[in-house]
Amino acid sequence: MSELSDILGSTWPVIQGPIGSMNSPDMVAAVSEAGGFGMLALGFVNRLEDAKRLVEEVKDRTGKPFGANVVIMNPLHREIIEMLAEEGIQTVTTSVGRPDAIYPLIHELGMKGLHVVLSLTHAVKAEQAGADGLVVVGCEAGGLRSRRPESSTMVLVPLVCDHVSIPVVAAGGIADSRGYRAALALGAQGVQIGTRFLVSEESIAHEAWKQVVIDCGDGGTDLLPVGNMMTRAVITPGIRKLIEDPSVDLEEELQKIDRLKAWDDGDLENAMPGAGQVSALIRDVKSVREVIEEMVS
Ligand SMILES: Cc1cc2nc3c(=O)[nH]c(=O)nc-3n(C[C@H](O)[C@H](O)[C@H](O)COP(=O)(O)O)c2cc1C
């Protein structure tokens, strides 16, 4: 058994990547029931009782292990971790923020944590801060990115594996058994999957969002500025127009978009449907069980 399997306790080392504040207890339970590691996205939850209710709803649906993602910049992150420990959750992932402030608490509570990193420097710092493992996310992934030049999964995962001794989970660009096997060959002990699970039967993403990802071809996503970070999204005709219009201040225009509302409403023409480059490989909506079974086959 790999060290990662000990940390996750799931049949397969396939983690459901958190997607913003999109939470479906049915989906988390379905991933865990299929042998993967379901994960609540508690990063942007701003009421402790909402986080607790979500955990209880997953527990009503499965007895299999599942975890939660906690964003360290969320002012409630310590309370959320304490609540998770009380609820018997044993493993969290931590993102966006300094891990040294939080790993002593995670360990005091008897939990394990995987810190999400986008670069070698942050990977080494996270190991020094006490992280039990790392989710190493290459630049082809969906989700938030830094404004610095970044490496792809193919480069970053083996690079990090060469410099740390804790288990590594590869994320970014993985949607099927080819990607899964490649990640293991690069030295990762498991994978974290975002976009492929977003386009699943159990995902509560709007149907229009799923369709935009299915229709996305090679080169159909790009990095767009949001605040002091970047986010990868499918470039819709509306966003393409903004990018190509020299009179437009892209950052200013994108700031006007309520991303979360557009995701909920399915009004994606001028929105930013978050997704990774791997969208080009996703051609249909499948159940999470079908995705996981094909992946580990
Ligand atoms: C729309 C979207 C939102 C995301 N939000 C988060 C988040 O809140 N926290 C986080 O750690 N990762 C987030 N991610 C990253 C995913 O959890 C996962 O690491 C990534 O999608 C893996 O790459 P892939 O999309 O190629 O599978 C997000 C990804 C997407 C597509």
Overview of this protein structure:
This protein is globular. The mean pLDDT is 94. The chain has two domains: 3-204 and 283-295, TIM Barrel (Alpha-Beta Barrel), CATH 3.20.20; 207-280, no CATH class. With 297 residues, it is α/β, with parallel strands linked by helices. It contains 14 helices and eleven strands. The protein has helices at 3-8, 25-33, 48-61, 77-86, 103-108, 120-128, 153-163, 177-185, 195-198, 207-215, 237-244, 250-255, 259-265, 288-295; strands at residues 14-16, 38-41, 66-71, 91-95, 112-117, 133-137, 143-145, 168-171, 190-193, 221-226, 229-234. The structure holds flavin mononucleotide. Flavin mononucleotide is lined by residues 17-20, 41, 43, 69, 95, 116, 137, 141-143, 171-174, 192-196, 198, 274-276, 278. Flavin mononucleotide (FMN) is lined by residues 17-20, 41, 43, 69, 95, 116, 137, 141-143, 171-174, 192-196, 198, 274-276, 278.
Please give a handful of descriptors for the protein shown.
297 residues; alpha/beta; eight-stranded parallel β-sheet; 14 helices; globular; binds flavin mononucleotide
User: Strand content of the residues, in percent?
Assistant: 15-25%
In spatial order, strands of the major sheet run 1-9-8-6-5-4-3-2
Order of helices and strands: HEHEHEHEHEHEEHEHEHHEEHHHH
CATH class category name of the largest domain: Alpha Beta
- On the 0 to 100 scale, the average pLDDT is 94
The count of domains is: 2
CATH topology of the largest domain: TIM Barrel
Q: What is the C-alpha radius of gyration, as a whole number of Å?
A: 18 Å
Shape: globular
Q: What is the SS-derived class? A: alpha/beta
Spell out which ligands are present: flavin mononucleotide
Which CATH architecture of the largest domain would you pick? Alpha-Beta Barrel
Main beta sheet: 8 strands, parallel
What percentage of residues falls in helices of 4 or more residues? 25-40%
The number of helical elements comes to 14
In CATH, the homologous superfamily of the largest domain goes by the name Aldolase class I
